[in-house]
Structures are given as C-alpha cells and as structure tokens.
Amino acid sequence: MKVLFAAGFAPIVRDRAESTRFYEETLGIPFQRDDEADYVSTNGLDGLKHLGLWPLSEAAEMCFGTKEWPADIPEPQGTLEFDVDDVDAAAKELQAAGYRLLHEPRTMPWQQRIVHVMSPENLLIGLTYTPWFRES
Predict the structure, then answer these.
(1) Exposure string (b/e) for 48-60, b if CB count within 10 Å is 16 or more?
(2) Are 105 and 113 in contact (CB under 8 A)?
(3) Structural domain includes residue 42
(4) E strands along 57-133, which residues?
(5) Taking Cα atoms as reference points, which of 82, 81, 72, 76 lies closest to residue 59?
C-alpha cells in the first residue's frame, strides 16, 4: 500500500454547535451543511501538508515546558494545525472569542511560529506560520 496524501480529518464531536462555533465562527472555516446526515464539512481547504505521530510528552513539553501533561487540562485526542497569515493576531482573536491559549505565540528553533489552544473535542489546535510550507 502507498498512501499518497491525507484526504481528510474529522474530530469526533459531542456538541456540534460548540464545535461549529469554534471552527467556523472563530477560525473562519466555511462549512457546508447536510441536514439529513446532521453533518457539516468542507472540501474547500488546501491539502494537509503534514501527518505525524506525536507523543503526549512532546506535546506537553512544547506547550508547557514539561514532559507531563497538566492534570487540570484534558489530554488531547489529536493535534491539528492550521497555517494562518498572522499567528499573533489569530491568538488575540481566539482570546477575544473566549478560548484559553495554552501558551503565548512563540517561534520555535525550526522557525515555525505557533500558538496552541484546545478545541471543544480536546484536540490540540495549533495556529501556525510555517515558512517551508509556503515555499513553492
């Protein structure tokens, strides 16, 4: 078998209205609705650039500077990153919408700028500026 690309990602949601508010209203991702199937989706985003298997200890270190995930924050069920034009502005928009940043925006040693927040489904959402994904 040869996997050619990641075709899609769908968090399993417990509260569709809350999740729709996060992804559509806060992040600005336009969804189409299938009322018969009680499903919202989009095929309007450019392709997924990266798929990885990230240990929880590494996610904790990136977000909190420790190998242990804090007990007062639910463990993430996955991570999803969205490249944005301006990470700092996106972080302010998230905070204004009532979401708690797990850390302030920062530039990593590999030159990716990133901020993390937890989604309603306990996905670790990264809003990023990834220079090498923007090179043609």
Answers:
(1) eeeeeeeeeeebb
(2) yes
(3) no
(4) 79-83, 106-107, 113-118, 124-129
(5) 76
Query: Quick check: is 102 in a domain?
Result: yes
Owner of token pair 């977000």: 63
Q: Report the CATH number at residue 126.
A: 3.10.180.10
Q: In this structure, is residue 31 part of a structural domain?
A: no
pLDDT at 63: 94
Among the residue ranges 5-9, 32-36, 44-48, 70-74, the one predicted with the least confidence is 5-9
Q: Which domain holds residue 75?
A: 50-133
CB distance 68 to 78 below 8 Å:
no
Q: pTM for the complete prediction? A: 0.82
| Structure tokens that stand for 76 in this block | 């993430």
- Dihedrals phi, psi of 18, to nearest 5 degrees: -65, -45
| Closest CA relative to residue 41, chosen from 30, 26, 49 | 30
